[in-house]
Task: structure prediction
Amino acid sequence: MKIWNKIKSWPLLLPVVALILVMAVNIIHDAAVGDNPLSFFMISLRDTTTNGTILFGRIIDIINRGSEVAILAIGMTLVVSASAGTDISVGSVMSLCASFMCMNLAGYGVSSTTTLAKPLIVGLLAAVLMGALCGAFNGTLVSHLSIQPMVATLILYSAARAIGLLLCNDLIVYVRNPSFAFIGAFTGPIPTPILITVVCIILISVVLKKTALGMYIQSVGINAKASRIAGLNSRRLRFLAYLLCGVFASLAGIVASSRITSADSNNIGLYLEMDAILSVALGGNSLGGGKFNLAGSIIGAYTIQAITTTLYALGVSSIQAPVYKAIIVIIIVVIEAPPFKAFIRKHSAARATKGVKA
Amino acid sequence: MKENAILEMKAIDKVFPGVLALQGVDFTLCAGEIHALMGENGAGKSTLIKVLTGVYSKDGGQIYLKGYDKPVIIRSPQEAQKMGISTVYQEITLCPNLSVAENMYIGRGEGVRVNWKKINEKADAILKSLDIPAKATQQLSSCSIAVQQMVAIARAVDMDCKVLILDEPTSSLDEQEVAKLFKLMRDLKERGVGIIFVTHFLDQVYEVCDKITVLRDGRLVGEYEIKDLPRVQLVSKMLGKELDDLSDISGEHKKFQAEPNTPPVFEAVGLQSDAGIKPFDFYIQKGEVNGFTGLLGSGRSECVRAIFGADRVLGGTVKKDGNAIKIAKPIDAMRNGIGYLPEDRKVDGIVGELSVRENIILALQVLKGFFKPFSRAEAARFADEYIKLLDIKTASADTPIKSLSGGNQQKVILARWLLTHPEYLILDEPTRGIDVGTKVDIQKLVLKLASEGMSITFISSETDEMLRTCSRMVVMRDRAVVGELTDDDLTQGKIMSTIAGGEKKDE
Ligand SMILES: Nc1ncnc2c1ncn2[C@@H]1O[C@H](COP(=O)(O)OP(=O)(O)OP(=O)(O)O)[C@@H](O)[C@H]1O
Ligand SMILES: [Mg+2]
Result:
């Protein structure tokens, strides 16, 4: 009974249960089609002609493909906590950052290149700068002009891709240079995006550990007035959350762009804002702001990716996949809804009292 | 059920993680009686009420209601209301963005088609009959806390109730408003309504109540007729020990002597804020305790908010040790050594989902800086120190503050500001919702801190509390400072006449 109560109040319960469910579906499916039931978990080394010896397996694939969502989920978690709203522009901002980076790396108006016009680092910094700029724009609208987050970020959601196309002279810019492609490829046997994600997670963990950011953002998200009386600057903190969200979006954009060695304005980061928001919700965070749980969001992100990958493995076409994701969203939202929680509580309470009488 | 009883609660248990909030509590309410529910902070009063109104489900026991032959199961406040149980909760639970009338009638199953004109008229009539200074169409947030509280009561009263529950309804009302409320309660009593009244004001208990039920640490101490239980006994029943004598405080109270030839630690000249107070002057010496007094809404809180930079300052200067300083926002005041315990704990004080520990260290952390977070061990040490010092009842320092009892939440916010060791501490209603025993402790603490050199401004609706602590009082009326009382002038009568204005000075 005690242990059960502990488990019930464990903050990572929802994302972990969801992840286990996805794994279970995989195991059952594999067993049903006559594969090794544990093939989902198998990791092996394979030789390839292009990348040498690399790690191979469905899990590796999920963690690799989930990198962008995981990176976005970090920033999204902060934004949700601080402002009780979501940044729906992150997918478009990813794309804009990628375009700006590739424009710098290829030179304006060049549609395809194998040599870099500027050092790689300049391109990367350009992307991060653009992300910070977008984040600052959103942050200003939300924190200083008090515009609803959804409306404020709608501006870049619809405009950022077009700006990206403008920067790229309406072209899909290809940068087929090995030093750039490396970011989306392999470091030794390990996919580089995984390493980048790990670095991002370590980075934010260090920031949360070495500064009071976590407590401040949660405090402002829970009660902005009381936070102000206690000396916090709630505007500045909200702004900071959006700024960081923009920076993380740019990092995700760099990874996505490097995977395809190009800046495909119309496709990079498409619908990823939804996955990022979903990760935060699945991670057990209230979209109403306040307390956040970063570990939950990150597990949530990989769970989303696992769902996507599993759907493909089950033969669901990529066009239909959103339908299934939508169903999952509905389930999560219902589970998290206060009336449903109250219903469950009342129900289990009623059962408990019946038990006493009997 | 006992004859004449309209409500009986038997052997009620309620368990929260780490807390036995109620253990086998019995409670009986008869028709046409006003029944006080008394106990220290965290004794379980609000919990008992929330069990009765279906906010919490009970873990044991039965509830009997007149007119039902079986124990009733109350699953929600709506169900409680249908059974004739109306409640005004300790923390105001209305919607600030809605109008007064909307707040009074919302969620009452009026159907889809609502005749707002009729409802507004009905609301206005009730407001008028209760003498509540609010209009039906006014947005609730534009009313003072006291008026909001009255609206909550009006909402409950209008619901044809058999049982009316009032959980600390008077803690933000002034004397006249309390008198109005009592008249209302007596009227309802005449009509056979049973009223449960929770309060920390002993005077009020002896003024209106017929019976008293005392709780201590989640257990029933007993039920008493008011005439059988003198005040001193009531207090010792609540505390489980004798109350420290108040007289030693008054004895301790020395006349304050400022150091000669030193400027006041803090001084405000022509200070004005956007909260609508007239420009005012104010000063405080090192080690002095002074206070603002005046009716509710006279601008007491607005003055101290202006000093702290909590409202937008429009003009005037603040000086520290004779030198002008700039205070535009709370952090500026904090950096200059000022601390401020706000009047409205729910809106300006607690950060609900954060733990008691985080709530305690918040202000000190902000002062220390963004890049120097307290380690968990340091934070825990501070929290434990103050939990002990102020005797805060909480399951652990990790408990979210919102699950503490009202009085204990108040102590946490007090701890937050004491921890910053300010030179000048502003306490706006620090004892609101605090039980009698702790009230005395807080008054003593204030005097002790002052004797160690802290300057303190103390605001309280209870004049005797201020008389016991303050050596000088600034009197306010109609949002302006109208006088100052010191030494021998510090008597209840003198304060009252200054507040009332003696000979009227109409503009
Ligand atoms: N939702 C909750 N979760 C956990 N503990 C709770 C919750 N509500 C109340 N408690 C605990 O139950 C105990 C009784 O609290 P309650 O609010 O009933 O006290 P009270 O008598 O109303 O005190 P006060 O005079 O301060 O309002 C306290 O120790 C409190 O911390
Ligand atoms: Mg209470």
In short: Strands of chain A lie at 44-48, 52-56, 112-113, 173-175, 186-187, 190-191, 262-263.
